[in-house]
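Exercise 4. Each item below gives a protein and its sequence. For each, produce the structure-token representation.

Item: DNA repair protein RadC (Curvibacter cyanobacteriorum).
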Amino acid sequence: MSLQDLPPDARPREKLIARGPAALSDAELLALLLRTGLAGKNVLQLAQELLDRFGGLSGLLHTGLDELKAVKGLGGSAKRAELSAVLELARRALAQQLSERPVFNHPEAVQAYLQLHLAHKAHEVFAVLFLDSQHRLLACEELFRGTLSQTSVYPREVVLRALHHQAGAVVLAHNHPSGTVQPSRADEVLTQHLKAALGLVDIRVLDHVIVAPGRALSMAEKGLL
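Answer:
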């Protein structure tokens, strides 16, 4: 059942035009993207089912394309592509915000940005936000993959990339596929090694953020820097 098959007072598009997007529920906004449901399941039901399955909008936005492909009704590429496009727009909007203003003015935006980049990945990824002297975003790069206990994170490579970007400071980040954001002893040791290596070239480590779907932890806020 498509949006056009719904009763007029239940159509999200008409409701949005009449009352604005803030008046719509999460399921109604998602239904606008999906447009059609399945046999025996209208598009609003499908949208709500997706939200329930992935833990709301945040969980859905952190879901990978392979996971979406496994959902009945999203096997085609068009809907998955549209959801992926929304995710990329969110990333770019946050990146623009961080490139225009100091990251410390928007700690929540930093964590949201890193969640969108890293939290959905099934494997551990180590990334670095390179910042200018005013602590505005220059670039975000994924430098290493694999658990920190199994894949070495080379301080020399981080320093070289920081010098390449002429960074004045960095924010370190990695994800925990397990879902916990509690830093391990290996996380703490790595942070101190990178802080020392970058300090030799006068580049500050402002934070090390650990992310998982729907949550994030700042090691700086926990006094671990």
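Check: The mean pLDDT is 82.
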